[in-house]
Design goal:
By secondary structure, this protein is an alpha/beta fold. The chain folds into two domains: 5-17 and 86-196, 3-Layer(aba) Sandwich (Rossmann fold); 20-80, Orthogonal Bundle (DNA polymerase, domain 1). The protein has twelve helices and seven strands. The radius of gyration is 18 Å and the shape is elongated.
């Protein structure tokens, strides 16, 4: 069965990120021990934020209270958005080659409205490689919850066995495979290109 669709994570695969930059920024605003700040993000409230179950203001209030942050809302938000490093050009090249040979390219990312405002604008040109980008806060579900994979399948009428899911977190890949998708745990672009050779693809041209 040939792969007709690639469903790809964004952060850590297409967009390079460093979540420790968030923790470091908040630690500078907090009187708490650095280890306690690091342990507090992400938490259950953050997961709810990614499902759009709490608002941006509610999440920032939670962070300020939980970590006793002394900065302004804008400073707290600025540190929260300081995780984006740039595009992985190698991964982008792999995806562009797949799209040119007729593969449907989709993205599925766990994110929130605050981060979405930043990455959707900053990396708009690169994200054009995807036919569509799905965000957890719009789907009210997040990886590795089975519902989020099924929602994308239903939206496009996809056959699970013809979809290849790529993510840097093994738990997310395992959850996709449990729904019937093929899966690859991403490590780097060159390894991804080699791993793709193990699958059947539509004929080029």
């Amino acid at each position: 069965m040939a792969i007709q669709t690639v469903l790809c994570d964004l952060g850590g695969v297409v967009i390079r990120i460093d979540a420790d930059r968030i923790r470091e920024g908040w630690a500078q605003m907090s009187p708490l021990p650095v280890a306690e700040v690091y342990a507090a993000y992400p938490d259950e409230v953050y997961d709810r934020f990614e499902r759009d179950e709490v608002t941006e203001d509610e999440y920032l209030h939670h962070v300020r209270s939980r970590l006793r942050l002394e900065g302004t809302d804008e400073e707290i938000r600025g540190a929260f958005n300081d995780l984006f490093l740039g595009v992985d050009v190698g991964t982008l090249d792999v995806l562009q080659r797949l799209r040119r040979r007729g593969v449907l390219t989709l993205a599925l990312t766990n994110t929130n409205r605050t981060h979405h405002r930043v990455w959707s604008r900053r990396f708009a040109d690169a994200l054009g490689v995807f036919h569509e980008v799905y965000s957890s806060h719009d789907l009210a579900s997040r990886k590795p919850e089975p519902a989020v994979y099924r929602r994308v399948l239903q939206e496009h009428g996809l056959v699970p066995g013809e979809v290849l899911f790529i993510d840097d977190l093994p738990s997310h890949v395992a959850a996709a495979q449990a729904v019937g998708l093929k899966g690859i745990v991403f490590t780097d672009a060159s390894t991804l290109a080699e791993q793709l050779e193990a699958f059947d693809w539509p004929r080029a041209g």
